[in-house]
Amino acid sequence: MRKGDKVVISCAITGSIHTPTMSPYLPITPEEIARHAIDAAKAGAAAVHIHARDPETGMPSPDLKHYRTIIDMIKSESDVIICTTTGGGMGMTLEQRVAVVPEFKPELASFNMGSINFAIFPLLAKYKEWKHEWEPQFLAMTKKFVFQNTFEDLEGVCRIMNEHGTKPELEVYDVAHLYNAAYLVSQGLLEPPIYLQFVMGILGGIQASIPHLLHLKQTADQLFGEDGYRWSAFGAGAHEYPICTTAVLLGGNCRVGMEDALMISRGRMAKSNAELVEKMVRILDEFSLAPATPDEARELLAIKK
Questions:
Q1: What is this structure's pTM?
Q2: How far apart are CA 219 and CA 213, in angstroms?
């Protein structure tokens, strides 16, 4: 578990859920994504979670040249931990999603722990006009979309990450995903201490509430023992800071960012990822806690630099 008063803040910079219509501040181009990541690190994030987008349309993209621009620019200015996605975006193949690992050998990469009905189609009702034709089509498709992560997929991704020295950040969308992770540990495919990210509030997965967060943590304690895992949590949308604050007070870490929430407070859009990180730092300070530096986070999360 977390030791001392240092908390690892991760910042999910752009993701693949929100679309350009939803916020004029959402970073789209590789340069914008990298700049948001660098500024988030300066604000107190020890790790940045990276997706790429098509710079012309804002659509989630698996194009490795976009990732290279993002990663090179971040590394030129910051020692922040770069966590690349292997969740990618809807419609991408597993091969496209995981290609960033052998190509860039990141210190950390997201790793989804099971299949779910990943649904964001309810967002359609909030907007009447769209910047790009693909946006409503993308959201509507999720009504029949299964985010596939079979056991064959999980075992294959484990082997790729192990081969390239990348620490998996295990994305847990529901309680069953903890049992999937326990199976992979039992097979020697995941090495403790594992790093769990509780993803709460996505339709199709566990919803964002404090009782559900406690259930996830208690289940992880039973499966892995307190020394067998590290963990973080976040809630989507308005649940972001309540879940992050509760996770921190329970001894965990937290994730903020424009992948998960576009609002900094009721009725006010976040203008940057750094602004979202700064709010979390202020919350930590109220409880005499402090954000971990990237090197402190590497030690806390057992990441090999």
A1: 0.96
A2: 10
